[in-house]
Amino acid sequence: APSDNNLSLYIQEFERFNVTDVVRVCDPTYHIEPLEERGMKDWVFGDGEAPPTQIVNDWLDLVQKRFGEIVSDEERPTIACHCVAGLGRAPVLVAIALIESGMSALDAIVYIRERRRGAINNRQLKYIETYKRRSKTGKCIIC
């Protein structure tokens, strides 16, 4: 997770990858002021847990808002989502977005674990496996 000491490095990367929103799902490890212009969201939920319904709703609203109507690759937004180690809370939200975009739960888990070895614990895995897609279109908005 970013800290006040290394936040400037993260901000440089956010600029490089056109990050429009930063979603923090863990307890604060840095001051948010430098990120307020990047649409900082503080959606904390328990380590090793599945996200509460309200956070899932807020997450899906944000994903739809950012990726629902992409005009061109040059304008393609990026959402940075992080927890402490990047192995639990953030990957669960990414899995939900992938499932909503049309991936199966298993494919979403494999996709994430290929990029973040050790991601998603057993409790979170069960949550993802039983997650029901809300969107009927299943268009891939992320991949």
Main features:
mainly alpha, disulfide bond, protein phosphatase, Protein-Tyrosine Phosphatase, Chain A, methylation
Describe this structure in words.
This protein has one domain: Protein-Tyrosine Phosphatase, Chain A (Alpha-Beta Complex). A three-stranded parallel β-sheet has the order 2-1-3. It is 40% helix and 9% strand. The protein has helices at 7-16, 53-67, 89-100, 105-115, 122-130, and strands at residues 19-24, 41-42, 78-82. The protein is mainly α and 143 residues long. It contains five helices and three strands. It is globular and about 40 Å long.
Summarize the structure.
The protein is mainly alpha-helical and 143 residues long.
How many structural domains are formed by the residues?
Answer: 1
* Spans where pLDDT lies below 50 across 5 or more residues: none
Provide mean pLDDT, rounded.
84
Residues in helices, as a percent range: 25-40%
Largest sheet: 3 strands, parallel
The H-level CATH homologous superfamily, spelled out, is Protein tyrosine phosphatase superfamily
Instruction: Quote the CATH topology.
Output: Protein-Tyrosine Phosphatase, Chain A
End-to-end Cα distance, whole Å, is 24 Å
Please tell me what the overall shape is: globular
Beta-strand residue percentage: 5-15%
Let me know the number of strands. 3
Strand order of the largest sheet: 2-1-3
Structural class: mainly alpha
Count the helices. How many?
A: 5
Computed over alpha carbons, the radius of gyration is: 15 Å
